[in-house]
Every structure is written in structure tokens, then in C-alpha cells.
Write the C-alpha cells for this entry.
Amino acid sequence: MRFIKTDILELLPDELEAEIERLGEKKFRAKQIFDWLHIKKCENFDEMTNLSAQLRTTLEDNFCIKPLKISKKLESTTDDTVKYLYGLSDGEFVESVLMKYKYGYSLCISTQVGCAMGCKFCASTIGGKVRNLTAGEMLQEYYTAQRQLDSGRIGNIVLMGIGEPLDNYDNVIRFIKLVTHKSGNNLSARDITLSTCGLVPKILQLANEGLPITLSVSLHAATNMKRNEIMPVNKVYPLDKLISACKDFSSRTKRRITFEYSLIDNVNSAKSDAFELYELLRGFNCHINLIPINYVKECGFVSSRKAAEQFRIYLQELGLNATVRRTLGADINAACGQLRREKAVAELCE
Ligand code: SF4
């Protein structure tokens, strides 16, 4: 039987300590190794120079580190956005997008290879879900992008790339625990945003984790009839259940929820849609983020910044506050899933 090595990056400090003791080593070695992995962000055991050569060989024999290969790196010419297409060890690909804001760097990471949710405007779901990413692979998306920077720290993470994070619940929670661990990378959980299309039972479960992250819910329509058309998840978890779960999350975590609303011409951008959104969210202390839909050839939906601005004014007239999200990296296909999709199409044509 083939021995499958554990990805050492995925082990929390107490788990790593137990493994190191099992190998007959002193406990404090685990702390040194965690430091090499999560503070110095090393890519192989040879870099761990304060460990003996024998211990490094033992680690190599028992564990693996799986750095990601940067298969493509696209840099925007209009802003500082960088898009990475990462190659995984099994030949699959995922994307991350690094964005520069006044307050620093933010990285949008993928949580799955593909997505099963079937949103009609999204390139990531074309071809369905291939598999979940491990916590180690998500960490590598972040650490690889961090290693690429000459200076500055990526201080914000957005789980909004390819995949539905709550459909990969356990790995995503482990990733958050690792990336925020005080003995390691020590990112504040408040600087992590998790985006979901609305998996109600998982939203309720997440509220119990005690993680002060921000929840961002992809709404995109304010009636079940419209939402059913563009987001199949709504047929399973309709709006009344979703909004009730969001209110529950908000009151239990004391965190304000963000609703994402992508404007699509002739679908959800009329004044009557703004009124329906007002009816749905009035009285709920939340934030609304308006986004002109990213054009995906296979989906065919379009919108514009002007339409988003107009929709914001409709909402403002009704007393709802909303902002229009800055469009970054428009020249490098920064919408999630497009680069991976292009790669898949190119391989089919070869
Ligand atoms: S928008 Fe998100 S949940 Fe919907 S298909 Fe795309 S990746 Fe999946």
C-alpha cells in the first residue's frame, strides 16, 4: 500500500506537537517547525536550518510541503491588481487575485477546484466542481502570493475566488484557524471575509464557531422568482430562510453582514428591483455592495458602472445605504474562474 504523506502545513500546533513527539523528538521542535512554516513561510525542509540534518530527513520521510506552481501571472496595466493561476500537485488549477488598496494588500483566494453551485453568471461553475481544496492548499495560495511581494504584508483575505467556501466547510475552518494562529501568521480574523451564495445550515453552523470574520452573502436578486433563475441554490434555501439565517448570524456574532448585489442589465437593475431589495432588507443593519457584473462570454450577462451608480441612487432615495465596488483588474479577467476556464479550453483545443 502506498504511504500518503501528511501535508505538514495543515497541522495546528497541538497536532504538530503530537506528531513530533510520536517521532521521538522533543516538543519544542514543533514550535520551531511551525515558525518555519507559518512565519518564515519556507517551501522545503532543507530551509529549516536550526534543525539537525537527521530531523530534516525524518520530516521529509513522514510529511510533505506542497508549494504551488505559478502557472500564469497577469499584472493589470491600469491598477496594481495581479492575478495568479496556480498549478496544484494533481494537475488541477485555481486562481488568486492580489489587490492593492490604500490600506494595504488584499488577496482573494479559491476554496475549491470548480464549483457545484451553478450560478448562471459565473465562470467558476462551468464544468462543475472537481474537488475541495485542502487547508494546506489555501494557505499556499496566500503564502505564495506573500512570497512574491518585495515589501508589505497581505493583511486581508477574501474567500471569494473559485468555489463555495461553505461547501468545503471543515477545510475552510481549519484554514482560518491556521492563518490566524497567534504562534504563526497571526492574521486577525476580522480581516477575513467569507463569501457564500447562501448555504443556510452552514451559515448557522459558522455562527457557532466564535470566529469574528465578516460574512458576505451573494444576493443578486431580491425575489425568489428572480433569484431562482440566476442562482439554483435559492430553490433549496429561499430568501426568507436565507435572510433569517443572516439575521441570526449577525445577532450571535455581533458582526455586520455584507450583501453582494451584482447588477445585470434587464435582469435585476430596474427601479422596481431596488424597491424589492429595500422591502427585503429594510431595518436590517447590513451593508450592500453593488458590483457591475463581470462579463463572461459563456454567460452573456452585461452591466456597467453607470447602471450600478444609478441603482445606488435608487436605494439611497429609499433610505438604504450602498456602495459601488471599485472594479480592479478589468484588463486581466479578474472575475473568478475565467483564467482557469481559459486554460481548460486551451487544453481541449491542443
Ligand atoms: S458565484 Fe460563487 S457560489 Fe456561485 S457558482 Fe460562482 S463560485 Fe460558485
